[in-house]
């Protein structure tokens, strides 16, 4: 699909407010944030501290935002941030964060303060969407004065902690719908011509080009490879149109692009990209891959 066939807007012209309103009317609720996410968060209240750090307030609905924190928070320990659901449609990011919280957070709290924001974009989760109701991509909006409520809320909360982070792990997916829906929609919104890239068949990481920490990324890839397959590069040695830095790893200018992984000064950062549409990958496998990322990243830091 190219922007010339996208059903909203005028080819070659950026969307106006009417186009964005038209887009919003075509979105619909497909699953429940309350039932599938908040319920799981509340089940962990006996083990972890649950804090509401904000609320999204849209015409499309109000959504409370939650973090989970390890109980024995101590400023003498390094602090780790785990984020999921920045793109709400990327399901294993949300449930991988929650699974880690349930199964491993307490173990690692011996070494770290851990802050988990499992679902930064709950409306996106419910509508299986990359954007928020205002047709803004939260994962291009992590900068001062952000236009995205989702991005602004978590940035303000992390700033309020007044702690330096040692690591930030942002959990994402790359899906076939990136080519079938989200990239065409982006081109239509921006009035540009869409050119799809090859969807990598497997897991990969996106590192921050300003602090790539190649050994850190490799340790994660080696661990995830025991759970799910790592994406091979294409014929141009690229993944999603970006040169591969090492097997399963590409670099992005995170802060320049307004990416979630770029908004802190943590020295160890990575963005995961699980591939849920692989015929060989189950939903459970995708969740376990996300958990493997977190545990291997923390193990690496412990063993420095």
Automatic annotation (TrEMBL):
Pfam families, sorted: AstE_AspA_cat
Peptidase M14 domain mapped to chain residues: 29-298
Cofactor: Zn(2+)
Biological process, per Gene Ontology: proteolysis
Record key words, sorted: Hydrolase, Metal-binding, Zinc
Recorded superkingdom: Bacteria
Name this polypeptide is given: Peptidase M14 domain-containing protein
Cited Gene3D superfamilies: Zn peptidases (3.40.630.10)
InterPro entries: AstE_AspA_cat, Peptidase_M14
GO molecular function, one term: zinc ion binding
Similarity comment text for this entry: Belongs to the peptidase M14 family.
